[in-house]
Design goal:
Elements (H helix, E strand, L loop, with lengths): L2 H21 L3 E6 L10 E3 L7 E3 L2 E5 L8 E7 L7 H18 L6 E6 L14 H8 L2 H8 L4 H7 L2 H10 E5 L2 H5 L4 H13 L4
Parallel strand pairs: 5-6, 6-7
Antiparallel strand pairs: 1-4, 2-3, 4-5
Helix pairs in contact: 2-3, 2-6, 3-6, 4-5
């Protein structure tokens, strides 16, 4: 797929994921990495190596219940097959680790939102400390996360407490086109928000 088409497909996935999140009525604010003002909240740099920039696709603030006021970031994969999601997931959990370690105020929850499952043989392991550690120790991440190319040296630098915190905050969400439509309508969401405003909840 040409680069421009791939970018458009990714942007469409971020837009759709954001709309779905809004439709859950559990998101008070949200933005994408193409937002003119808020995109900077999703942009970071690898700490070592060439220190190249990276960004998350969607970010925002949850509302209601136990997650009220919590910040989240999301990676959105608008895929119709498993594709190379596994490799991207390894990099993503490494980014989540860095965000939790270095920018905790933005790092209450980490959402991976996709339209097709991947790594089905190890699906139940995706949100475990082992999966986070695996991503950190992928060869391409050693230098840019830990400033070393030696796996054992990198392993010794891993903060297992942060690994556990990240794993506990991982969400893996699989959407479908029809599921996106089976949500509260904009009209009814407006009524709900109006009622909450009258009650002084927002």
């Amino acid at each position: 797929m040409p680069g421009e088409a791939m970018h458009q497909k990714g942007a469409d996935g971020a837009r759709r994921a954001r709309l779905w999140l809004i439709a859950t009525t559990r998101v008070s604010q949200s933005w994408t990495n193409e937002d003119a003002v808020q995109a900077a909240r999703l942009e970071f740099n690898w700490p070592h190596g060439e220190q190249r920039p990276y960004s998350f696709d969607v970010g925002g603030i949850l509302s209601g219940g136990e997650f009220d006021g919590h910040f989240f970031v999301a990676e959105c994969k608008n895929y119709s097959s498993a594709g190379d999601q596994g490799a991207h997931y390894d990099d993503w959990v490494a980014k989540c680790y860095l965000l939790r370690r270095d920018q905790r105020r933005w790092a209450d929850h980490f959402m991976w939102i996709t339209w097709h499952p991947f790594r089905q043989e190890s699906w139940k392991e995706l949100c475990t400390p082992a999966a986070v550690t695996k991503g950190l120790l992928v060869s391409r991440n050693l230098k840019r996360v830990f400033d070393t190319e030696d796996e054992q040296a990198a392993r010794e630098k891993i903060d297992q407490e942060i690994v556990a915190e990240v794993a506990e905050r991982l969400w893996v969400i699989v959407l479908s086109g029809k599921q996106e439509k089976l949500v509260i309508t904009p009209r009814h969401r407006g009524l709900l928000l109006s009622h909450r405003a009258e009650m002084g909840e927002i």
